[in-house]
Write a structure and sequence with these properties.
The chain is an alpha/beta fold. It has helices at about 1-10, 40-50, 65-85, 95-110, 125-135, 155-160, 185-195, 265-305, 330-340, 360-365, 370, 385-405, 405-420, and strands at about 30, 90-95, 115-120, 140-145, 165-170, 195-200, 220-225, 235-240, 310, 320-325, 340-345, 345, 375-380. The protein has 2 domains: about 1-40 and about 285-405, Aspartate Aminotransferase, domain 1 (Alpha-Beta Complex); about 40-280, Aspartate Aminotransferase, domain 2, CATH 3.40.640. The radius of gyration is 23 Å and the shape is globular. The protein binds pyridoxal-5'-phosphate (PLP).
Length: about 425
């Protein structure tokens, strides 16, 4: 186990003294918002279920099935424990996309005779927005609430938007692009008082910030394994039993996961997810301290050497693994090319095939130019101080170089210098 640990840390970059790419032609990884590497301890837990324990967890007639089922049930409990839920409230899925689809379409469909209105935010993940658009095409009404300049929901606007026929409010816990943490407990309390179900997409929050579904009055919650140091292709949906959430699942099939998500259970992935959840329970505090210190180092390093930076999203109410920055007068794609030995995302990562600036940053009121210049830095469990120092050094050098080439930068700086001159008339 230790040997594998060492290998992953080297692959992460910094272990050979020369930064960042020694022995790793892919460069330095700072895109943990997109996905996280599998923790070697998670891999160790799942491997026996890849090789020896291969029974179908739904086979009820023999030992192979029972042993697999035991692995899945242990994982269900590990995940439930992480979020203060009961194992019966956890349903395994293929990831947060599927969980979001099941939650939003499932609640809407179940309640459609009485309630046909849903509320979400303009800055939600594409899979939430697209689920809502699907419902709109099928006769439902959706309110897409704008957010404040700092990316947070306006609670008064949310309260005003709730109607007697509102069945669901869906709001992301930690934002994937700008890292802001919404006032989840407040939203949950409001929804409970209005008898509206509250769903949160916690793909970026689970295992990173302390979540308790009772404290936060969460009724449904989406979870993704690959943001939590487990492999891709596994996720979960939490659904409250008291008061009971009922859904009509959009997934048809053999009725596995009590009809919520039909399909054969990917046992090794579920086991991995459970192991990742248990590790997160044990290490969240330590991870947060380390990652928080690295975020501060990155922030201080960049802001002390570069002016005209915009930090996108509230700086305080934010997950410490995320820093989303716009560099004025720097073309985002050129900056990405200039720092190409560092894996980061542009602000528009989800729609990277398009040249449109991020719809999330636009919803914060950031102009198209600055939205184009944004970079999302995603710090994770395996990021090191040396890596952060390399990122600071490289980014500062590249931003200065690009600004030197930019006529806009000259105009900006000349304009400011002109403002400082006292003109005698
Ligand atoms: N929701 C959020 C907030 C995400 O960051 C992601 C991942 O990009 C998803 C949903 C989709 O998750 P998955 O890849 O598990 O389907």
């Amino acid at each position: 186990m230790l040997r594998r640990c060492a290998i992953v840390r080297c692959a992460g970059a910094a272990c050979m003294g020369r930064l960042p790419t020694s022995g790793n032609s892919r460069g330095l990884y700072l895109d943990n918002g997109a996905t996280t590497p599998v923790d070697p301890r998670v891999l160790d837990s799942m491997m026996p279920y890849v090789t020896e324990v291969y029974g179908n967890a739904h086979s009820r007639t023999h030992q192979y099935g029972w042993v697999s089922e035991d692995g899945v049930e242990k994982a269900r409990k590990q995940l439930a424990d992480l979020i203060g839920a009961s194992p019966k409230e956890i349903f395994f899925t293929s990831g947060a996309t599927e969980s979001n689809n099941i939650a939003i379409k499932g609640v809407a469909e179940y309640q459609k005779e009485k309630k046909k209105h849903i509320i979400t935010l303009q800055t939600e993940h594409k899979c939430v927005l697209d689920s809502c658009r699907y419902l709109e095409m099928n006769g439902f009404e959706v309110t897409y609430l704008p957010v404040e300049k700092n990316g947070l929901v306006n609670m008064e606007a949310l309260e005003a938007a709730i109607r007697p026929d509102t069945s669901l409010v869906s709001c992301m816990y930690v934002h994937n692009e700008i890292g802001v943490i919404q006032p989840i407990a407040e939203i949950g309390k409001l929804c409970r008082s209005k008898k509206v179900f509250f769903h949160t997409d916690a793909a970026q929050a689970t295992g990173k910030v302390p979540i308790n579904v009772d404290r936060d009055h969460i009724d449904l919650m989406s979870i993704s394994g690959h943001k939590l140091y487990a492999p891709k292709g596994i996720g979960a949906l939490y659904m409250r039993r008291r008061p009971r959430v009922r859904i009509r699942s959009p997934v048809s099939g053999g009725g596995q996961e009590r009809g919520v998500r039909s399909g054969t259970m990917p046992v090794p992935l579920a086991v991995a997810m459970g192991a990742a959840a248990e590790l997160a329970s044990q290490e969240m505090e330590r991870d947060s301290k380390r990652i928080g210190a690295l975020q501060k180092r990155l922030y201080d390093g960049l802001t002390s050497q570069l002016s005209h930076l915009i930090i996108n999203g509230d700086l305080e109410k934010r997950y410490c693994g995320n820093l989303n920055i716009s560099f004025s007068c720097v073309e985002g794609e050129s900056l990405l090319m200039g720092i190409k030995d560092i894996a980061v995302s542009s602000g528009s990562a989800c729609t990277s095939a398009s040249l449109e600036p991020s719809y999330v940053l636009r919803a914060l009121g950031i102009d198209a130019e600055n939205a184009h210049t944004s970079i999302r830095f995603g710090i994770g469990r395996f990021t090191t101080e040396k890596e952060i120092d390399y990122v600071i050094e490289t980014t500062v050098r590249e931003v200065r170089r690009l600004r030197d080439l930019s006529p806009l930068w000259d105009v900006l700086v000349d304009g400011e210098e002109a403002d400082e001159i006292e003109w005698r008339t």
